[in-house]
Protein: Mitochondrial 2-oxoglutarate/malate carrier protein
Amino acid sequence: MAATASPAAGGMDGKPRTSPKSVKFLFGGLAGLSAGLLRQATYTTTRLGIYTVLFERLTGADGTPPGFLLKALIGMTAGATGAFVGTPAEVALIRMTADGRLPPDQRRGYKNVFNALIRIAREEGIPTLWRGCIPTMARAVVVNAAQLASYSQSKQFLLDSGYFSDNILCHFCASMISGLVTTAASMPVDIAKTRIQNMRMIDGKPEYKNGLDVLVKVVRYEGFFSLWKGFTPYYARLGPHTVLTFIFLEQMNKAYKRLFLSG
Structure:
């Protein structure tokens, strides 16, 4: 008996057809990708650039690097500034990734991140681009104080030990330490941020008053170490990201000094 082609498997001519859902997923993902790339281009370059400039400015004339607390303060400044600059792209990213889950009549249908930014400014006002800026900056202050300061301190410690030279191996080890410290410091902040975003109304009142209330209730009802639940997968994501960030940063700094400052 001859087999007949299923309509779900292809068209009337037997050739495979691409599912509309697949096309929607592909182009929806690409639209979200443009916003994610712009966010990294604004947030990451700003925070790393400001940290590098301030770190060099505050290094002593004899080459003595700033102390750990000053490094942390520089990291906070860089993180807050980077978060402020990157908030419009993050607003666009959140909206574009959530668009596919909305009912058809509520979807915004942004074509790309630039279309999203223009429409948000035109339809809702320019201040809307910085909606949620304060909690975003608060999280960035914690994350960057931990990440940037711990990397610089770890790198300095490894170089002072005499077992490392200023090369990729040293940068890799310092980055892994930095990723560990950043994970430990940022997880409680992320838990508070996520639970506030997803909180329910109980008897007409919000479940949590603020971020501090979230942390107090988590410790009281779930235990202190619940603040670091899921530590291993979080570090598995953040560790490689931190390693690549600082290795590329170090190599670009060396290339810049060699090409433009050596003469």
